[in-house]
Structures are given as structure tokens and as C-alpha cells.
UniProtKB/TrEMBL annotation:
Gene3D superfamilies: HUPs (3.40.50.620). Residues 8-131 form the UspA domain. Pfam families: Usp. It comes from Olea europaea subsp. europaea. The lineage of its organism: Eukaryota, Viridiplantae, Streptophyta, Embryophyta, Tracheophyta. This is Universal stress A. CDD domains: USP_At3g01520-like.
Length: 132
């Protein structure tokens, strides 16, 4: 197959997100050589200001600490995704960490990579929790 369709997987550090990745690998990449898709895994890294909100005095002191923590989280997410893909023998995967709000990052990624499919995990909220 010359040109595969692009499937984007939005991934964060939650177990729900990794369950979704595992499901995708099982449903669409098993066996890996027969897949009709090229998988691109994207982690949206929020800005430190978004993570701590509008701060008062002293907030600039912690911005670099928050940035370091967000970077470490992104590295862990991508590392865990690579391990899961490798364990499923899926090697033709592109990994991206893109700064920005997840909603905007994913919409822009769909356009940038001309994705046919965008997959997202669930936060695990039940119907009642979503309503509130």
C-alpha cells in the first residue's frame, strides 16, 4: 500500500488515554503490516501559564518549575506510548509533542497531517458527571 491514511491519536497521561491507544493498536494495527493507517501520536503540552492560571506575586518564580514538570510529563507520555507500540510490534509511528491547548492542537494537527481519523480517549466521566 503506497499511501496510507493518517490516524491521529490524542494522548495524555491518563489511563483512559492509554486504554484508547491499546484499543487502537489491537483494532487497527494487528497485525502491524496489514494496517491501512499511518499512526501519529500527539501529546498536547499546555503552557505553564495555563497550568497555574493567572498568578499573583511569586508566580513567575514557579513558572520554570511548572514548565520543567510539563516537559517531564510529556516525555513520560511519549516514552510509555513508544513502549506500548513496540510491545505490539507497531514501529511505523510518528510521535509529536505540540505546545498549546489540546482542542486547538488536535484540530490543527488534523489539518496539518491531512488525517482521516482522529481518536481520543475518554476522561471516564459517567453521564451524570458530564451533565454537571
Amino acid at each position: 500500500m503506497a499511501d496510507k491514511q493518517v490516524m491521529i491519536m490524542a494522548l495524555d497521561e491518563s489511563d483512559h488515554s492509554f486504554y484508547a491507544l491499546d484499543w487502537i493498536l489491537t483494532q487497527f494495527f494487528s497485525p502491524p503490516s496489514d494496517s491501512a493507517f499511518k499512526l501519529i501520536i500527539i501529546h498536547a503540552k499546555t503552557s505553564p501559564v495555563s497550568a497555574i492560571g493567572l498568578g499573583g506575586p511569586g508566580s513567575t518564580d514557579v513558572l520554570h518549575l511548572v514548565e520543567a514538570d510539563l516537559t517531564k510529563t510529556a516525555e513520560k507520555v511519549i516514552s510509555r506510548a513508544k513502549d506500548l507500540c513496540t510491545s505490539r510490534s507497531v514501529t511505523d509511528v510518528q510521535y509529536e509533542v505540540i505546545k498549546g491547548d489540546a482542542r486547538n492542537v488536535m484540530c490543527e494537527a488534523v489539518e496539518k497531517f491531512h488525517a482521516s481519523v482522529l481518536t481520543l480517549g475518554s476522561h471516564g466521566y459517567g453521564a451524570f458527571k458530564r451533565y454537571i
